[in-house]
Amino acid sequence: MVAGVSVVTPHGGAGFRLRTEGHFWPAQLEDGLEALRLIGEEVAKRPIGVLGFSAGGHLASVLATHHPHLLAFHILIYGSTDVETPAWDPWLTRLGYPGIDFNTVKAVNAQTPPLFAAVSTEDEIASYGRACLRAQEENTRPYVDACRRCRVPVEVVLAKMGSHGHGMVDLWTKPCEAWLRAHHWAPKKRKRSK
């Protein structure tokens, strides 16, 4: 898995250029759209989804809200969806971040594909409900709430998993796998032979 966002298909994933390497927005969006185009040609009519962690979650949510016709689902793991938060570190366009036009909390609509979101109760940036953060400074809850208001199917895992940037843990990976299988976006689990 590439840090950031990967396009999930039965054949693997594709990474994107990073702002920290001098690639300013919209390079990441261009990469995401190109990956979806290439993968779409390869897998024909199979469902395609995106998975993003942190800022990669933002890119995944931009693809889901601005280009929903390209996706069957999106998965955000401690995703940053509001470019104006946290208040102590807002995303600045002059530093290569997306502008407020790409605040995806405000872009959710009825065409947004189904969402699986996971966030740790210990996450200081994308928290779902830490008491020390004001509601407008959270990323996951407002996005989930916007999806629910628009009747977008949502599955959320909220658990103690570590601070922002935590690793892949069974607390969210197993429910995510079950969610993908339940919607027929992943193959059924094969029974192991004895």
UniProtKB/TrEMBL annotation:
<dbReference type="InterPro" id="IPR029058">
    <property type="entry name" value="AB_hydrolase_fold"/>
</dbReference>
<dbReference type="Pfam" id="PF07859">
    <property type="entry name" value="Abhydrolase_3"/>
</dbReference>
<dbReference type="InterPro" id="IPR013094">
    <property type="entry name" value="AB_hydrolase_3"/>
</dbReference>
<protein>
    <recommendedName>
        <fullName>Alpha/beta hydrolase fold-3 domain-containing protein</fullName>
    </recommendedName>
</protein>
<feature type="domain" description="Alpha/beta hydrolase fold-3">
    <location>
        <begin position="23"/>
        <end position="88"/>
    </location>
</feature>
